């Protein structure tokens, strides 16, 4: 029963989020499972871009204070719209910068080596950009990354254990930066527990939410996390290079940001044009220069859809989709030496499934040739992200059956087993 296409169709009929699907553009009738790399464009996001362009057209300089979405307050407004996604107070969130620049800002602000506490703790599985940023921040302070960046190892190369991370929280650690959800295996780290353990040892801790925001709920304030940062072009569907976001716990308000600029100012003081910064008394202080208004505009529509759908409902459907996908892989593809490398339990599984196969690169090429868009990760990983707002159970069913045909007919052998420039 579960294996039939009719069953998938029935799940779609019961899906309370199904009406969002028609709001998205899916290129050329493809089945798009790459929303954790670049989310799809929605009609609403497109409309808000037009609105912001019209404000520019009609108001020019006065668009900063007039028009539909006065630009001077847009970062704060979008921050407020993001609070339910991260579980924070409105003043604790700001839309600004990018993942990597926000990490630079937050490290410059929260990494204060002192006495024996001089090292930064990260992990071996994080996205390269985060590690590059941490290494360069260490160099800025005159430390050698070889001795001062400690990376928690992974026993299976896909996941991390809380116990291991905690064991690395030694007296020498000043700051911890970890992902909320690992970009490759989709593992959710226990942010609440890790924060508690870090604080017991007097260590500040921040999380990269690139793969968790929009996929799983968070309670950053309640967990007492010190800071977090994320991009908005993956699960949040903000578009290529859309402006990122950050969270700073209110207990840290009122400090001067590590990297200051005039948009770090309190709004009332900013146009006094004095040479002594009065930082905003909220997360807005971690902005630097003029906001990238045109790259924020799509978020007005994209975040509105998350407000309407509710992150709890999105998470519920996402878990159902990935569970269904794993079940079908196990029942239909058992003969083809795929292994599922993401955690299988609900409380540890993020928004995507990681399939491993030695021929992964060319299997992905064959899938693409058959209208399925997966995501290849070097050297042997296929990430499949069925996204709650726009993917269907029937698409999951179709994907598994197309993949089964590719394996049966060995049609992947028509392609070279290597990655493209962007993979
Ligand atoms: C996507 C991603 C990034 C990308 O950083 P940008 O500054 O947005 O280019 C960084 N870190 C992680 C964990 C990511 O998943």
UniProtKB/TrEMBL annotation:
The UniProt entry, under InterPro entries, shows: Kynureninase, PyrdxlP-dep_Trfase, PyrdxlP-dep_Trfase_major, PyrdxlP-dep_Trfase_small
Q: Which reaction does it catalyse?
A: L-kynurenine + H2O = anthranilate + L-alanine + H(+); 3-hydroxy-L-kynurenine + H2O = 3-hydroxyanthranilate + L-alanine + H(+)
UniProt keywords (A-Z) are:
Hydrolase, Pyridine nucleotide biosynthesis, Pyridoxal phosphate
Q: Which cellular component appears as one GO term in the record? A: cytoplasm
Q: In which pathway does it act?
A: Cofactor biosynthesis; NAD(+) biosynthesis; quinolinate from L-kynurenine: step 2/3; Amino-acid degradation; L-kynurenine degradation; L-alanine and anthranilate from L-kynurenine: step 1/1
Give residues annotated as binding pyridoxal 5'-phosphate.
99-100, 127-130, 208, 211, 233, 262, 290
Q: Which cofactor does it need?
A: pyridoxal 5'-phosphate
The record's section on SUPFAM superfamilies has: PLP-dependent transferases (SSF53383)
Example GO biological process = L-kynurenine catabolic process
On this chain, the residues bearing N6-(pyridoxal phosphate)lysine are 234
One GO MF term on file is: pyridoxal phosphate binding
EC number(s)?
A: 3.7.1.3
Q: What binding partners and quaternary form does the record give?
A: Homodimer.
Q: Please report which protein family the annotation says this sequence is part of.
A: Belongs to the kynureninase family.
Purpose = Catalyzes the cleavage of L-kynurenine (L-Kyn) and L-3-hydroxykynurenine (L-3OHKyn) into anthranilic acid (AA) and 3-hydroxyanthranilic acid (3-OHAA), respectively.
Record protein name field = Kynureninase
Question: Which organism does this record belong to?
Answer: Oceanobacillus profundus
